Amino acid sequence: MSKNTQQHYRFQNYPQKLTIRGQTYSLPIYLPDATWGVVRNLDGQDLQQVGTEGVVINTYHLREKPGIEILKKMGGIKSLMNWSGLTASDSGGFQLFSLINRNPDLGHITDQGVVHYSGKNKQRKLIFTPEDSIKVQFAISADIMICLDDFTPDDADENRIKESVDRTINWAKRCKLEFEKQVKQRGLDKESKPLLFAPIQGHNNQKQRKRCAEALLKIGFDGYGLGGWPFKDNGDFDYEMCSFNASLTPDDKPRFALGVGKPDNIVELFKMGYHIFDCVLPTRDARHNRLYVFNKNPEEIDVLNDQDWSGYLYINRGQYKTDNKPISPFCRCPVCRHYSRAYLNHLFKIKDGTAYRLAELHNLYFYNQVIQLLRNSF
Known about the structure:
Blueprint: H1 3-8, E1 17-20, E2 23-26, E3 29-32, H2 44-49, E4 54-58, H3 59-74, H4 77-81, E5 86-90, H5 93-102, E6 107-109, E7 114-117, E8 125-128, H6 130-140, E9 144-146, H7 158-185, E10 195-200, H8 206-219, E11 223-226, H9 239-247, E12 255-257, H10 263-272, E13 276-279, H11 281-287, E14 290-294, E15 310-314, H12 334-338, H13 341-349, H14 353-375
Parallel strand pairs: 3-13, 4-5, 5-9, 9-10, 10-11, 11-12, 12-13
Antiparallel strand pairs: 1-2, 6-7, 7-8, 14-15
Helix pairs in contact: 3-6, 6-7, 7-8, 9-10, 11-14, 13-14
């Protein structure tokens, strides 16, 4: 990359390493979804085989199963999974928001926390507070913890956006206090404690998003997250909002692009100065026959500037029934090295679980190749 090109992007002061609990990770980094402590159909050895260095696990779901007591007895999620890589735990807020947004009978959001009912008849009432979120994340023993925030609805009016920001700031203060309390109780020092990140809310309202960021910076966190929906009303990805969000925090603090995204989204947000990415797409797409491919040799790709450098292959289509080529001629993943398109086509047609495992391995390898191209761009 030329000097002029590098000066054009925010990552010229980009931290290239992140050290947590004595382990150092290269940046940028992509973390696949491991909601229940597992990337569906894959184990830890599978993940390592394709270069995956970390995962995102779900605080709300792990609180339900296997539960806090089992997590404590097992020494946290890494011990339970037999996983040595990075773990980031989301706050659980988005999952509760999604449940309530789909069915308001299941709960509501208050300043105290998220009220959740076990069913329409409201047999059991649960209140999930910022303090609860942090306590569960310590039981999980995650490396990166996320503050509980009030996820701004995509159709929120100005009053609801302001309410979301007020609540997010207040909850962030409470999360920070509980985090410091847990660190002290466990006798953790700077080298042995996890990191705490705070998402910035405000939807597409720059004034409110700026107010949120300024308040979070005063509280002080190890990193900051891209909170809210990264999409415009017409469904297009909102790069302008993402860029503005990045400009609100210092370049030497890690930025977590929560829930992002497609390969081209990751590249564009990397240019803006985002460091950590997580998304369900590569594994979810794999289970729906959609495999990622480079359109040319990755060694010849200028990933920061080239257009149309990647695409998709739908492996269930009839044209692949007798195709003996690998998924991609430019891929060295274990699937492309050992199996043909015809074999994967066959596995999907008979709906064997091996189809999902192999497809997910390929897609995760592709994502990790993209990350490596970004690392090479420094």
